[in-house]
Design a protein that fits this description.
This protein has about 200 residues and is an alpha+beta fold. The protein has a domain of about 120 residues: Aminopeptidase (3-Layer(aba) Sandwich). The chain is built from four helices and eight strands. The chain has an eight-stranded mixed sheet, sandwiched between helices. The radius of gyration is 16 Å and the shape is globular.
């Protein structure tokens, strides 16, 4: 397996193999924390579901059936962030976060969920996951990516704003607990100039 160090910043977005190529693993360093990004494996599922339950309140978190359906959906990708041993870069047990994204029927990217354990936050894990998913969507020529977040999730709103997302619209009572959702968007490819 290959390990890659970022060229700069908390995540790498250069021309090296990206995380979802077979056998490729990205190793990230940020503020003394190391983690790898890798593809989802079937045996990861229960851990991912548990993380989702802890990251989101009832009515926003997914049931096992919903999460499994999103992971298996055609055109979806699931990237895992896993802690790495500081000495040798070897994998150690401990999934610290994950992202599920997809290409929708119109060819647009969609972030279904991004979940990071509380202990892994503020160390670049979420940024690394988001960048890896955006790179995968860009590679298949998605012009942009959308996501939904609860209007009262101020941490998520600040995170996405830092990463170039902007408000597209609001959907009233989107979540099963009655909370409104903000639809955020980011352009991934340069817009073609009209002549």
């Amino acid at each position: 397996m290959q390990h890659f160090r970022p060229a700069s910043g908390p995540f790498y977005s250069g021309s090296t193999p990206n995380c979802c190529e077979p056998g490729a693993i990205l190793l990230y360093y940020n503020v003394g924390v190391e983690f790898i990004l890798r593809e989802f494996k079937r045996e990861d599922f229960e851990i991912l579901w548990d993380i989702d339950q802890k990251c989101f309140s009832p009515g926003i978190s997914y049931s096992r059936l919903e999460l499994a359906a999103y992971i298996r959906r055609r055109g979806s990708l699931t990237i895992i962030a896993e802690s790495a041993d500081a000495k040798g870069g070897a994998q150690s047990p401990g999934i610290v976060g994950f992202i599920v994204a997809e290409v929708d029927r119109r060819g647009m990217g969609h972030i279904i969920t991004i979940d990071v354990r509380a202990a892994g936050r503020r160390f670049g894990v979420g940024s690394g996951l988001l960048a890896a998913a955006e790179d995968q969507l860009r590679a298949v020529r998605c012009p942009g990516v959308r996501l939904e977040t609860a209007v009262d999730n101020l941490g998520a709103l600040a995170f996405y704003k830092r990463h170039g997302y902007f408000l597209e619209r609001t959907i009233p009572h989107y979540y099963s607990n009655g909370v409104d959702a903000l639809i955020l968007r980011k352009d991934l490819l340069p817009q073609a100039k009209s002549s």
